[in-house]
Amino acid sequence: MKFRINQQELIDAINIASKAVSKSTNIQIHELIYFECKENSLYLMAFDGEISIKTSVDAIVDEEGEMAVKASLISNIVRKLPNDLVTISNKEGKISIRCSSSNFNLIAFDYFEKNDIEIPETTPIEIANDVLKRSISQTEFATTLDETKLALTGILFELKEGSLNMVALDGYRVALKKVKLDYPTDYEDSEYIIPKRSLIEWSRIITEDTKTKLYKNDNDLIFVSENTTMQCKVIDKNFIDYRNIINDISETTIILDKRELINSLDRAQVLADPGRANLIKIEVADSSMVIKSNSEIGDVKEVIDVEQKGENLDIAFNARYMQEGVKACDSTKIKLNFKSSLNPCLIYPENSSYENEDFTYLVLPVRLAN
C-alpha cells in the first residue's frame, strides 16, 4: 500500500481513531490503529473491546492496501512531522513514513484483526450534534464510578412520548435531560443504557453544526456523523425507575442568580471538610440564602438575596453535588424547590418545572445530627 496525505489531516484522523484505543491492556490488537486505503480515501479503524471507531479522510492513493500500527507510535511520529505532505507505504513487512527531510522506517505487524462496522439497513434516529453534546454534558457527571452498580455507570437513553430522555443518577442525585425528537415509531418506548465513556468520546469527536444518526444493532448502538462511525455495547442491566424518585411537591421555592450561587459555593468549599462529604449548610429565611461551611481551620458564611415563596428552611448538602447541577442549568437564573430539610432539592432553570422543562436536577440532602 502507498498513500499521500497532509500531516494535519492525518493527525486529526489518528486522534479520532485513537479514542477507541486502550490505554492499558495486554491485548495487542487493542493498541493498534488499522489503516486501509482504497480509491481516494484512507480509512482508520480501532477497537478496544468496548467501543469501535472508524473514520475516513481524503488521500492520494497510489497503491491500495492495508496495515496496522501501534497507535501511540504512529501518533507520536506524525505529530512531530512538519505540516507538509506525508507519504506512507507498506511493503514486504516494512512501513516507510516520509515527510520533507524526515524518514521513518517501522516493522509492520504480522497479525491484526480487522474490526469493521456494518451499518444496519434501518431508519436511524437523528439528533442535532449541538443538542447531543449539550445533553451529554448536562448528565454525564451524575453517573456513578461504582462498578457494582453497573447500570448506573452509564446514561439511560429513553425514547418515550416523542422525547429522548437522557438520565444519569448515582444514588445521591439525578440529572434528567428531555429532548423533543422525531424518531421512527418502532423506537417508541425503547431504552438503552450507554456507557459514559462512549458518549464522552463521541461528544469530543462530533462537530456542532451537523447531525448524529443512531442505529440499533443487536446489543450494540452505532453512532454516525459525517465521516466517522462509532459502535458501542449497551449495558444489559435494568435502570432505576427515576420517575418514582422525582417528586415536585414543594413547601419552599427560591429563585436566584445562577452565577452568584456558583461563586458562593466555590468559596464555601474552600473551608468545607472533605471528610464530612464536603458539607455545606443552607438557611433560607426572609428572602435570603445563607451558605455556611466550616472545618478545623475556620469557617465561611455567604449571603445571597433570593426571591422566596413559602416556609423558611434549614438544610445541608454536599457542595459539589449541588454545584454541578446548578452549572448544568441553561439560564441566568435558577429555581430551587424544597419540601423539607429531609427531602431532595429540585433544581431547574427559572420559570420551569418537571412537567414543562427540558432539564431537571435532583440532589439529596445530608442529614444533620440534632
From TrEMBL:
<dbReference type="GO" id="GO:0005737">
    <property type="term" value="C:cytoplasm"/>
</dbReference>
<comment type="similarity">
    <text>Belongs to the beta sliding clamp family.</text>
</comment>
<dbReference type="GO" id="GO:0003887">
    <property type="term" value="F:DNA-directed DNA polymerase activity"/>
</dbReference>
<dbReference type="Pfam" id="PF00712">
    <property type="entry name" value="DNA_pol3_beta"/>
</dbReference>
<dbReference type="GO" id="GO:0003677">
    <property type="term" value="F:DNA binding"/>
</dbReference>
<dbReference type="GO" id="GO:0006271">
    <property type="term" value="P:DNA strand elongation involved in DNA replication"/>
</dbReference>
<keyword id="KW-0808">Transferase</keyword>
<comment type="function">
    <text>Confers DNA tethering and processivity to DNA polymerases and other proteins. Acts as a clamp, forming a ring around DNA (a reaction catalyzed by the clamp-loading complex) which diffuses in an ATP-independent manner freely and bidirectionally along dsDNA. Initially characterized for its ability to contact the catalytic subunit of DNA polymerase III (Pol III), a complex, multichain enzyme responsible for most of the replicative synthesis in bacteria; Pol III exhibits 3'-5' exonuclease proofreading activity.</text>
</comment>
<feature type="domain" description="DNA polymerase III beta sliding clamp N-terminal">
    <location>
        <begin position="1"/>
        <end position="111"/>
    </location>
</feature>
<feature type="domain" description="DNA polymerase III beta sliding clamp C-terminal">
    <location>
        <begin position="250"/>
        <end position="367"/>
    </location>
</feature>
<dbReference type="InterPro" id="IPR022635">
    <property type="entry name" value="DNA_polIII_beta_C"/>
</dbReference>
<keyword id="KW-0235">DNA replication</keyword>
<comment type="subunit">
    <text>Forms a ring-shaped head-to-tail homodimer around DNA.</text>
</comment>
<dbReference type="InterPro" id="IPR046938">
    <property type="entry name" value="DNA_clamp_sf"/>
</dbReference>
<feature type="domain" description="DNA polymerase III beta sliding clamp central">
    <location>
        <begin position="127"/>
        <end position="239"/>
    </location>
</feature>
<dbReference type="GO" id="GO:0009360">
    <property type="term" value="C:DNA polymerase III complex"/>
</dbReference>
<keyword id="KW-0963">Cytoplasm</keyword>
<dbReference type="InterPro" id="IPR022637">
    <property type="entry name" value="DNA_polIII_beta_cen"/>
</dbReference>
<protein>
    <recommendedName>
        <fullName>Beta sliding clamp</fullName>
    </recommendedName>
</protein>
<dbReference type="Pfam" id="PF02768">
    <property type="entry name" value="DNA_pol3_beta_3"/>
</dbReference>
<keyword id="KW-0238">DNA-binding</keyword>
<dbReference type="Pfam" id="PF02767">
    <property type="entry name" value="DNA_pol3_beta_2"/>
</dbReference>
<keyword id="KW-0548">Nucleotidyltransferase</keyword>
<keyword id="KW-0239">DNA-directed DNA polymerase</keyword>
<dbReference type="InterPro" id="IPR001001">
    <property type="entry name" value="DNA_polIII_beta"/>
</dbReference>
<dbReference type="InterPro" id="IPR022634">
    <property type="entry name" value="DNA_polIII_beta_N"/>
</dbReference>
<dbReference type="GO" id="GO:0008408">
    <property type="term" value="F:3'-5' exonuclease activity"/>
</dbReference>
